[in-house]
What we know:
Elements: H1 10-36, H2 41-46, H3 55-59, H4 67-76, H5 90-101, H6 106-109
Helix pairs in contact: 4-5
Amino acid sequence: MMCNAPPRSHEQRLEALGEANRIRTYRCQAKRELAAGERDWHTILDDPEFASANAYSVALTLPRLARVKVTKAFRRADASLSKTIGGLSPRQRVALTEELAAQMPPSVLRRPTIPNPEAGHVVD
Length: 124
């Protein structure tokens, strides 16, 4: 049984294509920042724009990790290679982060600090 998508107007299709392109561009830039060490793993896990992104392909962009190490980390974390970031359970997120952390510099997987005005941190 085939399910047909509801008919869309030309404007709706263009709007959907524009949104898809915006998300692809954003993800591409974020993955470049992750590879360069300018962004950390936790910000990707918490980013709603990455909810439908393949977790394995994002993990491959981490510096100093190749397919074999990332695949082993996914297997040890009991996470399918086809899981999306939004589809990872909290247990899988923790296990995967721990497995990846064991194989790379801690600065890449660090959890960003939350600004605290009482401690003298400036909040913009």
